[in-house]
Amino acid sequence: MPLMRRANESMQSEWRNIPEGVFEFEIGKPEVKLNERFGNYQVRFPLSLTEKEKARVMAENPMTLTEAKEGVQQSWRVSYTTGLSLGYMDNTGQYKSTKLTDMMAAAFGHANSKAFRQWIVKGGGPPRPEDKNDQMAELELIEEWLGWLEGLELIGSIRHAEDSSGNGKMWARFGGPMAKGSLPGQRDEEYQAFGRGKLRAMIAAAEGTEATLTTAGRQPVPDDKPAERFTAEGEEVDGELPF
Predict the structure, then answer these.
(1) Low pLDDT (below 70) residues in the chain
(2) CA atoms within a 13 Å half-sphere pointing along the CA-CB vector of 60
(3) Phi and psi of 38, rounded to 5°?
(4) Are 187 and 181 in contact (CB under 8 A)?
(5) In contact, 43 and 168? CB cutoff 8 Å
(6) Given this model, what pLDDT does residue 210 score?
(7) Strand 153-162 relative to strand 21-27: parallel, antiparallel, unpaired?
(8) In angstroms, rounded to a whole number, what is the distance separating the alpha carbons of residues 91 and 161?
(9) Which of 6, 50, 74, 112 is the most exposed place for a label (fewest CB within 10 A)?
(10) From the CA atom positions of the chain, what is the Rg in Å?
(11) Distance from C-alpha of 105 to C-alpha of 35, rounded to nearest angstrom
(12) In the chain, how many domains are there?
């Protein structure tokens, strides 16, 4: 089969939506885009069924002979859009989450969601540019920070909804992000460890320090600052120890 179709060979493919139900998805590279209609920035998360789920979809929903003859293809992809807010404190001092925070918390796995939220509540987030008024530089840092989610997985539901224009086209809508390991009997310890490593690395990169889940939000001593050393008599050592 040729890699490139010529103009007179091209055929418009018809795509079959992901069926309705609950599936595991892999997160692609998030994108920060300006919504020109509302004048605000949003985050688009591209999502694709995991290989295991692709096999399940085809096993439970095989192509009919008619679909195969007409060149219908199965879609594996959907997207999810959120705002840029990481949440806020209400008048009672209670933290209020957002779609973005919920999405990110789910991506790190059930065992790590609480640690991520605690870090966010303490003021955690992407690095900020030296010039606080440079919005383009800030957007670049935000998108780079969100890139830590690429390759992570979560659980979500798919429902079908008709196009708002009334043209009869049906779309697959993603909703209800849930963390892997949150469903009964599906702890998935290997993924929890993977998500924990990703979260630690993200926090460390954002804070510019060596961070752990138990010290999230606190600033450890930077690696480049030498430790204070003392002799047995309690005198501070200036320079190298004599042994």
Answers:
(1) 1-3, 5-13, 209-243
(2) 11
(3) -100, -10
(4) yes
(5) no
(6) 44
(7) antiparallel
(8) 37
(9) 6
(10) 24
(11) 24
(12) 1
Q: In angstroms, how far apart are the furthest CA atoms of the chain?
A: 89
Which residues have a Cβ under 8 Å from the Cβ of 202 and sit 6 or more positions away? 145, 148
Residue that is written with structure tokens 């692709």 in the block: 54
- Of 21, 183, 33, residue with least CA distance to 109: 183
Q: What is the pLDDT of residue 169?
A: 87
Is 230 part of a structural domain of the chain?
no
Q: Which amino acid is at 157?
A: S
What is the predicted pLDDT for the residue at 60?
96
Q: Are the CB atoms for 165 and 36 separated by under 8 Å?
A: no
Residue with tokens 């879609």: 75
Residue 38, exposed/middle/buried by CB under 10 A (0-12, 13-18, 19+)?
Answer: exposed
Q: How far apart are CA 196 and CA 110, in angstroms?
A: 10
pLDDT-above-70 percentage for the chain: 81
Residue 207 is part of which domain span? Answer: 19-215
Task: Report yes or no on 2 lying in a domain.
Answer: no
Report the alpha-carbon distance of residue 160 to residue 146 in Å, rounded. Answer: 28
Q: How far apart are CA 172 and CA 162, in angstroms?
A: 9
Q: Are 204 and 215 in contact (CB under 8 A)?
A: no
Give the H/E segment covering residue 145: helix 135-146
Asked whether residue 12 is assigned to any structural domain, the reply reads no
In a domain, 234, yes or no: no
pLDDT in tens, 48-77: 999 999 999 999 999 999 998 899 999 999
Output b/e per residue, 108-121; b: 16+ Cβ within 10 A. bbbbbbebbbebbb
